[in-house]
Design goal:
419 residues; alpha/beta; Rossmann fold; 2 domains; 13 strands; 16% strand; disordered N terminus
Length: 419
């Protein structure tokens, strides 16, 4: 048996054993592999620090988790792992997991909270669970989109799934998992309208105005930067006064975008960097239209009911392969939540800029379409009202640390208490 692992007795007293083990464990281990995971976990950590001071949140993650009060054991969420494949990446993740497991053997973990990134996090869950850690996922894996047959693995390795999208609760529960929709952190936080207006006032005044959102992962920026720029250039060929702002998540991603464009931004495009030049809220507030790389940023646009076109550039081979394994007609989050296509999406996509530009121009020129799209996005955002995932997740973690039962009925009661 591995050093530090606990073995439950086989005499029918497992629940009492669990409570005794929990009483000696106070560590909640967060593991995030991407900037979005860092952002999702940070409010939960802040809630634990404020409301459950006896619990010790520790993390392999990013700067937002550290600022929220986690004891940082490693930085793993400064950039995303998606798109970084090959033997070297596999070995890197394996070494990271070895380090985490070695630490957990010396410091017994009550609960492991993996945040998104299932391909990186589930192998770690498989190694931490035998050491006595309960597993509470923040962000359920998107099996409904591409791998429903993996539900058996999820049931085996996850004690609780905290779902960020409304339909996921029923999808997982109907397949035997313990799951609950807890809301999405992007759609619960109010927008500082005054600050956003002030930032928007500093941006170009001519119209139409297009915000280009290339994503937070370096691989996304490299793959999609030129396509976004070419799409805007096609729009500008029809509307000579059009202006675009690229909103980059970091200085490095701003440089990557410029590199993807051949070393210089095309005419009419300017660059803004998060923090240095304001917030994404201000850039979206300014725009008439967003062209966004598929991912969480599409919910930033949904939050302001901003018409958008979603894109995700891949190779022809990747697009063909994705078409064979991905389930469902839509892959952009607002469309998935709506259950129908309310905004154009080119995900995955291996073509050129012209079709995207045509869809974008319709959202610039067709006033009725703009009004209908805006209303559809408001309705999607409304489905998230009344649920703040951070305090709900903190309560779930506290009960898990205490060794309490956590089934669907208990999760229902926790969420109900927060309404």
């Amino acid at each position: 048996m591995a050093e530090g692992a606990a073995q439950a007795p086989s005499n029918g007293t497992a629940s009492g054993y669990l409570s005794r083990v929990a009483s000696t464990r106070r560590i909640v281990l967060f593991t995030a592999q991407e900037p979005s995971g860092d952002a999702h976990a940070a409010p939960v950590i802040a809630q634990l620090r404020a409301r459950y001071p006896h619990i010790e949140p520790v993390a392999w993650g990013g700067p937002k988790m550290e600022a929220a009060g986690a004891t940082m054991l490693g930085r793993t969420a400064d950039d995303g792992v998606m798109g970084l494949a090959g033997v070297s990446k596999v070995l890197e993740v394996k070494r990271l997991h070895d380090d985490i497991v070695a630490w957990a053997r010396r410091n017994p973990v009550a609960v492991h909270m993996p945040v998104d990134s299932p391909s990186a996090n589930y192998p770690l869950c498989a190694r931490l669970k035998p050491l006595g850690a309960r597993v509470v996922n923040l962000v359920a894996p998107q099996l409904w989109a591409w791998a429903p047959w993996r539900i058996r693995k999820v049931r085996r390795l996850s004690d609780v799934l905290l779902c960020l999208l409304p339909f996921e609760e029923e999808w997982f529960r109907s397949r035997g998992a313990v799951a609950k929709f807890v809301g999405h952190p992007l759609l619960v936080r109010p927008i500082d309208a005054e600050a956003a207006d002030l930032e928007a006032a500093q941006l170009p005044s001519s119209r139409p105005r297009v915000v280009l959102l290339p994503g937070s992962r370096s691989s996304e920026v490299r793959k999609n930067g030129r396509l976004l720029a070419e799409t805007f250039s096609a729009i500008r060929a029809r509307h000579a006064a059009a202006e675009a702002v690229v909103f980059a998540s970091s200085e490095a991603n701003g440089e990557r975008f410029i590199t993807a464009c051949g070393g210089a931004l095309p005419q009419g495009i300017s660059l803004r960097v998060a923090g240095r030049d304001g917030s994404i809220e201000g850039a979206i507030r300014w725009a008439d239209l967003a062209i966004a790389v598929s991912g969480t940023v599409s919910l930033d646009c949904t939050r302001q009911a901003k018409p958008m076109v979603g894109v995700y550039r891949t190779s022809w081979f990747e697009a063909t392969f994705a078409g064979l394994i991905l389930k469902g007609p839509n892959f952009l989050l607002p469309n998935i939540v709506a259950g129908r296509r309310i905004v154009p999406e080119f995900v995955p996509y291996a073509g050129g800029a012209e079709p995207i530009a045509r869809a974008a121009l319709a959202l610039v020129e067709d006033r009725a379409l703009v009004e209908r799209t805006t209303e559809d996005l408001r309705q999607v955002a409304g489905r998230f009202l009344g649920r703040d995932p951070a305090p709900i997740a903190a309560d779930v973690l506290a009960r898990a640390v205490a060794g309490e039962r956590l089934g669907n009925a208990e999760l229902d009661a926790i969420v109900a208490a927060h309404r």
